[in-house]
Amino acid sequence: MKKLIIALAATAALLGGITGGAQAQDKTKICFIYVGSKTDGGWTQAHDIGRQALQEHFGDKIETPFLENVPEGPDAERAIERMARSGCAMVFTTSFGFMDATVKVAQKFPDVKFEHATGFKAAENLATYNSRFYEGRYIQGQIAAKMSKKGVAGYIASFPIPEVVMGINAFLLGAQSVNPDFELKVVWANTWFDPGKEADAAKALIDQGVDILTQHTDTTAPMQVAAERGILAFGQASDMIAAGPNTQLTAIVDTWGAYYIKRVQALLDGNWKSEQIWDGLKDGILTMAPYTNMPDDVKAMAEETEAKIKSGELHPFTGPVNKQDGTQWLAEGEKADDGALLGMNFYVEGVDDKLPQ
Amino acid sequence: MLEAILLTVITAATPLVIAALGELVTERSGVLNLGVEGMMIMGAVVAFVATQTTGSPYIGVVAGITAGAAFSLLFGFLTLTLVANQVATGLALTILGLGLSGQIGESYVGQPGIKLQPINIPILGDIPFLGPLLFRQDLIFYLSIALVIGIHWFLFRSRTGLKMRAIGDNHSSAHALGINVIRTRYLAVMFGGACSGLAGAQLSLVYTPQWVENMAAGRGWIALALVVFASWRPLRVLAGGYLFGAVTIGQLHAQAFGIGIPSQFLSALPYVATIVVLIIISHNRRTTLINTPASLGKPFVPER
C-alpha cells in the first residue's frame, strides 16, 4: 500500500513537472486564484469565463494559469505566494476573503501586479475592482413591480454585508419607482452556496405569497423552485435561463472578461497603475441577460432604464429616499456617493424585514 | 399553508434521516465512518449522471445506492482489512468524495435535472391533509419510512441484529463466540454507504434536481450528529431528523413572515436545539451508556 502511494505521488509530481516545464518563456503569465470550482455555475464560473475571454483575446501572447478551490484564510496566502513565485506578472484574486492575504503577498513581491476583487485595501502594486451590481438590481425591481400581480416580491439574501444590503435597497427603489406601494420580503439563508437551503428559502417565500423571486446566493436552485411553482424569477451572477426557460425575466451577468482584457492591455503597454475601480453597466463589467417572459412594454421600460443608467442620466440611489424608520436619507435630487453605498447598513423604507445587525 | 410548510420539512428531513440510519447501523457494528458526507456526494453525482444518461430517475436511485456502497467498500478495505485508523480514513473518504464527485460531474453542472416524481397511493392519497403529506410522496420518502421500521426490527427483534450489536459492544467476545466480525462489519459499512448514496440521490433527484459541486453542503455531518443525538436508536433518528428539518424550515418561514427576530439567531436554532437535546440525553448517563456501542471506533485484529 505504502509503495503504491509513493508511486502515485511520484507520478503526480512527474506530471506536474512536465506541464510546468512546458510553459514557454516569452509568454506573459496572468494568474488567477478562485475561491470555488470553475464550474460552480455562479461566481467563480463567471470569473473563469472572463479568464477564457482574456486568453482568447491575447492568444499566444499570454498564458493564464489558475488555482481552484482555494480556501479563504491562511491557505490563500500560500497559494497566492506560490503563484507570484512561479513568475506571474499579474495575479487576480477573485474573492473578498482573499483581501488580507493579497495585501501581504503584494508587499513581498513589489514587481508583481495584484488585483483583488470586491475588496477595499489597495497598495502601489495592488489594485481593487468591483462591479456595480446594484444597477442591475434596480432594473430588476422595476420589472418586478410591472410583472407582479400581488405587488410583493421575495428576496433570498446571503449575509448582511453592505454589498447585499445595497442590492436589496436598489431592487426595492426600482420597484417603488413603478409602484410606490410595492413590498419586499427578505429571507437570509446565511450561506452563499447551499442548493437545498436556497430552495427551502424560495419555497418559504412562495408559500408566504410572493409571486416574483430574486436571489443573492449562488446556485440555480431558487430558479428551479420558481419554475416548478409557476412564478417568475431573476437569475444571479450567470445567465440561469437553462434552469427556468419560462421563468427567468432577466439575470445580472458578471462579465469580468472586458475588465480583465482592459487591465492586461494596460500591463502590456506598460501603463498599469494601482486603482480602485468600481465599474458598472456602461463599462460592460456587468450585463443584463436577455429580457424574456415579459410583454413588450415592460421590456421597453427595462431597456430604457438600462440605457439611462449607462448614460449616467439615472442613478438608482437618487433622493428623495427615506430610511426604513422613516427618517430622511437622501434629499430631493441628492445622489448617494460611493462611500455611503459601500458602507450601507440600513434598509430603505418599505422592506418587510428587520436588518440583522 | 401548514401543509405546504410540512411538505418542505419532509423534503429537508428525508436525506438526513436516511443517511443517519445507515451510519447508525455501521456504528452499531462498532465502526465509526466519518465519510458520510463523501459517500452522500458520490451518491448524488452518480445518481444525477445516471439519470441524465438513461432518462430514468429510478435507474438514478439504484446507481446512487450502488455508488455509495461501492465507495464505502474502500473505507471498509482500509479500516477492516488493513486496520487503518477509522477517524482519519473517514475524513479522507469525505475529502476524496468531494474531489472525485466534482470531477465526475464537471460537464453536468447547470444541466436541468429530471425530478423523481411522486407516487400517488390510491385511496390513502385522497385523505384530506394527511394524504398529500404522507401518501403522495416520492419513492425515496417511502423508503426512508420503511428503513426506520426495518432497521428497528432488525436491530432489536432479529437474531442477526442481536449478533451485530454484540460485535459492536465487544468484538473480542463476539469473535470468541464464533461470529464473523470482519464480514459483518463489511456488510454494515456497505449498508451505511448504500444509505448515504440513497440520501445523496434524494438531493440531486428530489430536493434540488440538479448537480453542483459540494451540493450536500454539510448534510453528511448533520446526519453524523443525528446518530449521537438519537443515542443509536432508529426511531429517535426519525424524530431528530424531523425536528431538525422543522426548525430549519420554520426559521425561514419566520423570516419571510417578517417576525423580526435576527436571522443569525434563527439560523443557529437547529444547532442550538441539537445541543439542548444532547444535554438532556447525556443527563442520564446510564441510558446513554447502554445504547452506545462499546467497541465503536476500535480496530479489531482477530487472534489466530
UniProtKB/TrEMBL annotation, chain A:
<keyword id="KW-0813">Transport</keyword>
<dbReference type="InterPro" id="IPR052910">
    <property type="entry name" value="ABC-Purine-Binding"/>
</dbReference>
<keyword id="KW-0762">Sugar transport</keyword>
<feature type="signal peptide">
    <location>
        <begin position="1"/>
        <end position="24"/>
    </location>
</feature>
<protein>
    <submittedName>
        <fullName>Simple sugar transport system substrate-binding protein</fullName>
    </submittedName>
</protein>
<dbReference type="Pfam" id="PF02608">
    <property type="entry name" value="Bmp"/>
</dbReference>
<feature type="domain" description="ABC transporter substrate-binding protein PnrA-like">
    <location>
        <begin position="27"/>
        <end position="309"/>
    </location>
</feature>
<dbReference type="InterPro" id="IPR003760">
    <property type="entry name" value="PnrA-like"/>
</dbReference>
<keyword id="KW-0732">Signal</keyword>
From TrEMBL, chain B:
<keyword id="KW-0762">Sugar transport</keyword>
<feature type="transmembrane region" description="Helical">
    <location>
        <begin position="263"/>
        <end position="281"/>
    </location>
</feature>
<keyword id="KW-0812">Transmembrane</keyword>
<dbReference type="Pfam" id="PF02653">
    <property type="entry name" value="BPD_transp_2"/>
</dbReference>
<feature type="transmembrane region" description="Helical">
    <location>
        <begin position="237"/>
        <end position="257"/>
    </location>
</feature>
<feature type="transmembrane region" description="Helical">
    <location>
        <begin position="211"/>
        <end position="230"/>
    </location>
</feature>
<feature type="transmembrane region" description="Helical">
    <location>
        <begin position="58"/>
        <end position="84"/>
    </location>
</feature>
<keyword id="KW-1133">Transmembrane helix</keyword>
<protein>
    <submittedName>
        <fullName>Simple sugar transport system permease protein</fullName>
    </submittedName>
</protein>
<keyword id="KW-0813">Transport</keyword>
<keyword id="KW-0472">Membrane</keyword>
<dbReference type="InterPro" id="IPR001851">
    <property type="entry name" value="ABC_transp_permease"/>
</dbReference>
<feature type="transmembrane region" description="Helical">
    <location>
        <begin position="139"/>
        <end position="156"/>
    </location>
</feature>
<feature type="transmembrane region" description="Helical">
    <location>
        <begin position="29"/>
        <end position="51"/>
    </location>
</feature>
<feature type="transmembrane region" description="Helical">
    <location>
        <begin position="186"/>
        <end position="205"/>
    </location>
</feature>
<keyword id="KW-1003">Cell membrane</keyword>
